[in-house]
Structure formats: C-alpha cells, structure tokens
User: Fold these one by one.
Assistant:
Number 1:
Amino acid sequence: MKFLKWILSVSAAFILSINICYAYDRVIILSPAAADIFIKLGLNDKVVGVTKHVNGFENAIKVGSHLKPNLELILSLKPDFIIYSNNKFISDYLKSLENIKTYEYDPTNVNEIFENIKTIASIMNVSEKGEALINQLKHKLTNLKEPKRTAKVIYEITQAPYIVAGKNSVISDIIEKAGGINIINIDKKLIKFSVEKTISLKPDIYIYQIGPMNKNPTPPKDRIGFKDMDSVFIQVNELTFSRANTKTIDAILYLNNIFYKWSLQ
C-alpha cells in the first residue's frame, strides 16, 4: 500500500511539473503594441509571425497588417497562441480553433499595461520576468517631477483627416501622468475634430505625431490659423506614443520634462 501511494505521489508530481513547464512556442503577434512586451520578456524566439510594421523578430514571418491579417499565411505557420488588439481585426474562425489560444491586448492606461504584462508573462511561463519588468517600470515613474502649473494639451493623431486623441486613449493617460490635461474631453480613443475648435480651445502645448498614420504632416507653426496660436508645438514619434507598452513609461517621462520646464516660465 505504501509503495502504491509513493507511485501515485511521484506520478502526480511528474504531471504537475509538465504543466508548470508548458508554454506556447509558436506565437503570432497581431497587436503591434504587444510586440515590445515579448521583446522585453526575452520571448523573441517564441514568435513565428508579426504584422508588417513590427521589427525585432528576425525569424518571424510578416502576416499582413493588424487591420488585415493574412488568414492563410497565419494558419500555415501553425500557431498555438495568437495575440490581437481588437475583435474587429481577427476572424471568428481563428478564435474558434481549439488548438490555438487567443488573447486580446488593448490597454488604454498604464495600470492596464502592467496587468497585461503580468498576464502575458504568466501565459508564457515567465512570471518572475514579468514581475521584474513591472517593478522596473514603476521605479522609472518615481523620477516624475511635479509641474508648477498644469498644461492644457491637445494631441494630433493625423493632420488629414484631422483627428485628435480622446479621453479613452493611452495618449490621454500619458498626458495626465506627465502632469498635463487632455482638453479634448470626449470619451473615445480617436476623435474627428475641427481645426477651428482646436484654435478656440487655445492649448498651452500642441503635440503632433509622425509615423505610419501621420507620415508627412505640415508643422503646425506653418499652418493657417495654427501659426497665430501661442501654443508650444511638440513633435513626437507615433510608435512610441500610440502603442501602449513599456515605451509608454518613457513617453510619460519625456512629456513630464517638457511640462515641468514649461511650468517654470
């Protein structure tokens, strides 16, 4: 009887060890923002497919854009884990396949970024690395300085059509964590807005991004109407500010330094 119990306990421990060691090793990233998390967690070699604007994965195949992923190409890579940014951009067929785990990555603020890092690290069986990364990012935020006054900010997503960041975007959280306030007080991520309304709101700081969505914007100081504004115009990198990931913390610190210096004037 004792021998039988010993056999059962050893078998249970063996099965448990298999489960603990299990992790996905054919990952496709359809959420460009999530790619940074996989790099920071040292999971590059687990990724077999990424979207066309994602770099840093030498052995991964480009599987289209996050808006229009190539289903046939995705299935040919035999993924066991797909991470995506929005239900609109992934087919119900992919989500229905029992042999593929799917996960939606769409954080809109810093706390949600931390929660998603923790979840992805757990799914990929690198929880300790996830906790270390979160602690590192939280420590960086201790370097924030408190501005002497609060800057009113507008963030331009694209010049044409004219779109600005709303309250439900990670950009709005970046601005507020940095010590400013997004004066576009509308509960959406992206807002089609009017130039005349922007001019009438008289932002202290006007931020415009350059990147895939806003490739060659005219500098605001050279635009009709804008050049008469007293705003400070700041150009930023779209990929750093629009993608919610570890770089969001760097974006907060960057803006905080600008807001702090502005507040001293």
Number 2:
Amino acid sequence: MGQYYFNLPDLGEGIVEAEIAALHVQVGDIVTEDQPLIDMMTDKATVELPSPVDGKILSISGQPGEMVTVGTPMVVFEVEGAGNADTAPAEAPKTEEKTPEAAEVKTPEPVKAAPAPVAAKPKPVSPPKAPKAKTGDKPLASPAVRKRALEENIDLSQVPGSGPAGRISHQDLDDFIAAGGRISHGAKKARTGVEEIPVIGIRRKIAQQMELSKRSIPHYSYVEEVDVTEVEKLRNFMNANREEGQPKLSILPFIMMATLKGLEKFPECNAHYDAEQSMVRRFDGVHLGIATQTPNGLMVPVVSHAEVRDIWDMATEMMRVTSAGREGRASREELSGSTVTITSLGKIGGIVTTPVINHPEVSIIGVNKIVPRPMVINGSEIQIRQMMNLSSSFDHRVVDGFVAAELIQFIKGALEQPATLFM
C-alpha cells in the first residue's frame, strides 16, 4: 500500500487561493475515483473537487471557512500500489503560519498554594423533577387538588405525584410549591441561549461584497412610481397567445427591455468604475445581472448580451440562469460579467427599497411590488391603476443625479407606453 497526496489544483483565471466551502468526506472513508471530496469557493463560483483515486482517506487538511492556496496538500489517501508520496512535498505547507510570539514561548508555571479548607456549602434543594408526561396524558388528581392548582395558578403536569400511578395529592402540591416549582399557566420562559454561526462560504462572499459596495460607493438613490396598467394588459395578452415553447412572461422581462433601451440612451449607467485607476469602463453590450435569492444566499446570475435578445429569449435565459443559481448549477461565467443589475422581491417587494450597487457596477434598478392604487387621470378623473415603484441606486462618483433620474424616467415612460418597447 502507498500514499497519494491530493493538492489543491489550479482553479483557473489566475486564482491563487480558494475557500473550503464544504467537506463531503471524512478521515477513514473509503472513496472511489471521481467521488465528490470537497467544495472550494472562489470569488466567482463554487468548484467541486472529485477524488483522483480509489482509496482510504488518511487525513484532511482544513475545515470549511479556511482559505487554501493552490498546491497545498489537502487530502492524503492510502491507495493500492506505490501512490505518489515520493513526489509529494516533504512537509505540507500550512494555510496559517504561527506568529513567532505564539510559537513556543513558555512561562514557568506559578507554584500553586495549598488550597485552604473550605467549609462545605449546604447543597441547595432543587425542585423535584416532574416526570415527563406523555403526550395527551392528563395528570391524576382529585377535583379538590385540581381546583386548588387552578387557584394557585399551577400547571399540574409539572407536579410529580407520589400516589398510585403518579396521582397528585395535596401534599405533593405543597411540596412542589415549597420547593419553588410554581409554574404559572401560560408563563413564558426567558431564552438565554446564543448560537454562534460562522460566516463562511457564500455568506462570507456576500458580506465582503456588500461591505465593499457600501464602504466605497457613495450611493445616490432615486424612487419613482410607474403606472404598469398597460404593460400588464400587454403581458396578459402575450401570455394568452404565446406559442408552444415560449415561456410565461412575468413583469421582469418587460423591465429588462425598458432598461436595455434606457441604457442605449444613457450609457454612463452601463459601466464599471475602477477607483484605483480612476477609470470608467462603459460597455457596448448589456449584461443584465438578476439578483436572485438562493438557498445559499444572494447570487447575481447574468443574462448576457441582452441587446441581441427579444423578450421571449430574454425571459427564457433569465429563467435558465436564475434556476441554475438556485440549484447550485450556475457556472463561473453565468455568475460574472454583469454590467448593470436588476433586483426584485416580487410580491414582497415593498413600497421602497434601497438596493446596494453590485460593485464595480455603477447602477442597480430595484423593482417594488405592484399594487392597485387610485390615481388621478387626465387631471380630474380617478381610476384604479396598477402601480409599481422603481427604487434604484447609482454610484454618485460617476453618475450624476440628473442622468440617473433621466434613465428612470425613460424606463417609466417605456413601461407606461409598452408599444415603444418593440419599436
């Protein structure tokens, strides 16, 4: 038998380190070739590392949340044959080096004084423990005992009975009260527990990205209401008359279309800003990030090259990449490269939101929920209209408030006159 050292391989695109997102095996497991071993998270995606060999796992280096550099030994296998121990590094590099101060500084242990005799404290009298009542069990007690328990505000299910079959007597009730075991009906117990949850994996990436955005980008927010009555009528008509294979349209593809047209007029909002180089990069193509809630947290799958798609293709691609994101199947390419982001919480979208810009983008379009509201039409007529707010944020360093407002007003106009979306 030999040993096989499995090092973190090159994950591509110049990545030099990655985070352990999940371990699928443990020491002692017998694994087969291609069996999933470890999920590694990079800045863009989670990569599943399969076992390179058949064998038994002797050791695993690292735990979820730890960073590992490319080339670091991660798993040692016991395998048939010679293995690759001869080519493995003599000593595995460690992901975290000890500081000199923490290495081997020993201080003499203080001489402990002989403990002084301590008078034994009287053992506190604990309330008698109640027997665990079975579900649906009714404590055995006489009517008089029940009446007294009710008057004393005591839950009889908590009182241990000393009689036959656990029957509760007056004396049991007295003992329970004397021991401090009075429990009020319906009383709430104070909760004092604290659960510590490590922020690792995707959650840590989300935290870092949000912190970067809020720390470095001066957000300018703009909210406008949009009458979507006409676009809703058009959407319902198109859904009722769609051809086989065409997806059912939500409001989002129409908003994507309106945003696409708006960015053609205001290209400064379809850009990235590199603060270190003082450089704005405007893009000819429009790659729409769709903020998506997944079981692992917020992700932004990308509908690439929206400028060449019609509304059906845009809806189909949006559903494909967002489903891939929710199911953990999205590739690095599908999760990167957006030039502007749309975020929507659908029916729980609230009235107003303050979306955080997806760094290094400079614009994010937030969609609030659609609600019927009475509106004044033509100056005097009141109608119930389908209304929706757009809550959007812009990087005020490179997008002026006037330009941002013009973009949103353009999107509003396009949605209120939906025929213009197809002109």
